[in-house]
Design brief:
This protein is α+β, with helices and mostly antiparallel strands. Helix content is 31%, strand content 22%.
């Protein structure tokens, strides 16, 4: 064999071996490890992001928007496509509203990955400004952000939402499964020619929007409750307070206010004390307001009658070597049980509680709902504290009768009072009316428990008359209304501390219902540690009166005292817009104050500028809440002109007919 032939054979063998190696390698890459390299390529070229759905709105009982989702944009980067890290970071930091420093942006852009968030949930204006820079490797993605157009209104009920769209508190948390919708998927692809671009987000990958929650809360009544509570807490420099307004017939919560409160648009700027929903979560000793239950039990068990004389002695009673006194050192002596309630006698109430005995008193307390949750669809509800009789001391029967050694939530107390208001039957508080879809079809209604009798209708009627005397001539005079009969009870409870009770730290409260003979509203006002005054009749009762009077007018409830009846001006309501923020403006009174007309002008339906102009021209100081047109004013149009102040609740008008 010649040398050339041998060389050809060697070359052929080499090429054959090389071809076999290449073929084997191709088989390994394209067949054996195909999935592995596809995954690596996908990791290098693709990134799947969750496409946030439009979160459903939360509305008040009349359809006005309290929470909604608004369009925002999120800015992201492909660091591998950024040409100049330092220059890009400097230009991005100069965009107003982006809110990220140049040094932080540069750190993110220098990352080794193919994706980095620059800023989440910025306004569309910021997104437009970023896109106008035309920076290589910088992109924008449309998302949604939760917005609360009325600011802090009902914030402790609504709760708040995290940056990724999950409900973290309040109704936002409890009904998250309905409101959040279903996220979609969008894929970010990266290639050498086009850089990074979006695909997907349609068909089965499309986001499914959330449903809408309709509350029982009425925004106007919520406004009235929050304003009265804020003014009362500020006036008495109190630690905080609560207000609940409920329909005692069906349990619908019309207002639930906490103070201090917060703005859920910026909830991180506040703390847990402001986030807390006090009417549902706070526990406190109710004091004399619990005498309603003791009296109801005594009347139902025929232990006492309203006219029966009760020996209240020299102003104290001794139980288990402990002397329990009347408030302010009163010595009532022999008085009727009706007077016991009107004057809030501790001694007289204790005598009824002792006659009931431990077992019966405990049973009635449980029947009225104490020691258990109400079942309201809000997170964190307290159960209260009501020990079983086996753990009662020799003193317990007496002091529990007057609202000590028992802890309740404000919600439990207003529910118990509603039992008397509606004729003796249980009522379950509720704050969510229904959940609806975009067409308004109801897709869910919270179930309601059937009511059951706790005391007879006769007992409720007798106690109703007694509670009316508390207001007409007893400790609750400051809760009285000119046109409506009020039934209620004051409460002043010293706060428990180790070894006894604090001498000056008290909880002042008033609970009642109105009109007393045909109740529409049950209202509880609780003020925690007021200063300068401490009694419920002084601190809390005026706030009750303020809320009740304006709410009854708003609801068009006819006066229950016809001899004082006057003509009420019509109230016209419009639906609230879904995008306006609540704000407060104080307009100073001018020289025309000395020539005010004899009655308050009707400013409803006017825009803010005209309403303020007409009011100030008539000599009034004006405080506005919200923006748009006037939908509610206090004092009402046509009322006698006195005080020189008008509060206006504003709202943008939707021509929806709702």
């Amino acid at each position: 064999m010649s040398l050339s032939n041998r060389r050809m054979i060697v070359l052929f063998a080499f090429l054959t071996a090389w071809g076999l190696v290449v073929t084997a390698r191709l088989i390994q890459i394209q067949v054996v490890r195909h999935d592995h390299y596809v995954m690596r390529a996908a990791r290098q070229q693709e990134r799947t992001l969750s496409l946030t759905p439009v979160r459903g709105s939360i509305r008040d009982a009349r359809g006005r928007i309290l929470a909604e989702s608004v369009n925002v944009e999120s800015i992201y980067a492909d660091p591998q496509a950024v040409v100049d890290w330092k220059g890009t970071a400097k230009l991005l930091a100069s965009v107003p509203g982006l809110g990220v420093s140049s040094s932080e942006l540069e750190r993110r852009l220098r990352g080794r990955g193919e994706f980095a968030w620059i800023a989440r949930q910025v306004t569309p204006e910021v997104g437009t400004a970023v896109r106008a820079l035309r920076l290589p490797g910088i992109y924008a993605l449309e998302e949604h952000r939760r917005s609360y157009p009325k600011g802090s209104m009902a914030a402790n009920v609504l709760g708040y939402v995290g940056i990724d769209g999950e409900g973290l508190a309040g109704v936002e948390y409890s009904f998250d499964s309905f409101v959040k919708g279903r996220p979609g998927k969008v894929t970010l692809l990266r290639d050498a020619r086009r850089g990074m671009y979006l695909v997907g987000g349609e068909g089965t990958n499309a986001a499914v929007d959330g449903k809408h929650v309709v509350l029982t809360i009425d925004e106007v009544i919520q406004f009235l409750a929050e304003r009265a509570l804020r003014e009362t807490v500020d006036k008495y420099r109190a630690v905080g307070g609560s207000v609940i307004v409920m329909d005692p017939n069906d349990g619908a919560i019309l207002a639930m206010a906490s103070y201090p409160t917060f703005d859920p648009n910026h909830f991180r700027q506040f703390g847990p004390d402001a986030w807390r929903n006090r009417p549902v979560q706070d526990l406190y000793e109710p004091g004399s307001t619990l005498k309603i239950v003791t009296a109801a039990a005594g009347l139902e068990e025929q232990i006492v009658t309203p006219s029966q004389i009760v020996d209240c002695g020299p102003g104290y009673i001794e139980i288990a070597n402990t002397r329990i006194r009347e408030h302010d050192g009163h010595q009532y002596g022999l008085i009727s049980f009706e007077e016991v309630m009107a004057r809030s006698s501790n001694v007289g109430t204790i005598r009824v509680g002792l006659a009931l005995g431990q077992e019966r008193l405990y049973r009635y307390l449980r029947d009225f709902g104490f020691g258990e949750q109400t079942g309201l669809t809000l997170p964190g509800e307290g159960t209260g504290l009501l020990s079983k009789t086996a753990r009662w001391s020799k003193l317990s029967n007496a002091v529990i009768s007057i609202g000590q050694e028992i802890a309740v939530t404000p919600l439990q107390l207003v529910r118990a009072t509603a039992i008397i208001a509606n004729g003796g039957n249980t009522v379950e508080p509720r704050i969510v009316e229904r959940v609806v879809d975009n067409e308004g079809n109801t897709i869910y209604e919270p179930p309601r428990k059937p009511s059951r009798p706790v005391v007879s209708e006769k007992t409720a009627a007798i106690l109703n008359e007694m509670l009316k005397t508390v207001v007409t001539r007893g400790t609750g005079k400051e809760a009285g209304l000119v046109q409506y009969a009020v039934a209620g009870k004051t409460g002043t409870a010293q706060k428990a501390v180790r070894g006894g009770y604090h001498p000056s730290h008290t909880v002042a409260s008033f609970v009642g219902y109105v009109p007393a003979d045909r109740p529409r509203l049950a209202i509880l006002v609780v003020v925690d540690e007021p200063r300068g005054a401490q009694y419920g009749g002084t601190v809390a009762a005026p706030a009750f009166r303020q809320i009740a009077e304006q709410a009854l007018r708003y609801l068009r409830v006819e006066p229950s005292l016809p001899e004082r009846q006057i003509v009420l001006p019509p109230v016209k309501l419009a639906a609230f817009s879904q995008s306006e923020s609540s704000r407060e403006t104080v307009v100073p009174r001018d020289a025309a104050a000395d020539s005010r007309p004899s009655t308050v002008p009707d400013l409803r339906g006017l825009d803010a500028r005209r309403a303020v102009a007409e009011a100030t021209a008539a000599g009034y100081m004006v405080k506005t809440f919200g923006s748009g047109r006037v939908i509610f004013q206090t004092p009402a149009a046509g009322d006698p002109s006195s005080g020189g102040k008008i509060d206006l609740l504003m709202s943008p008008v939707q021509e929806s007919g709702t």
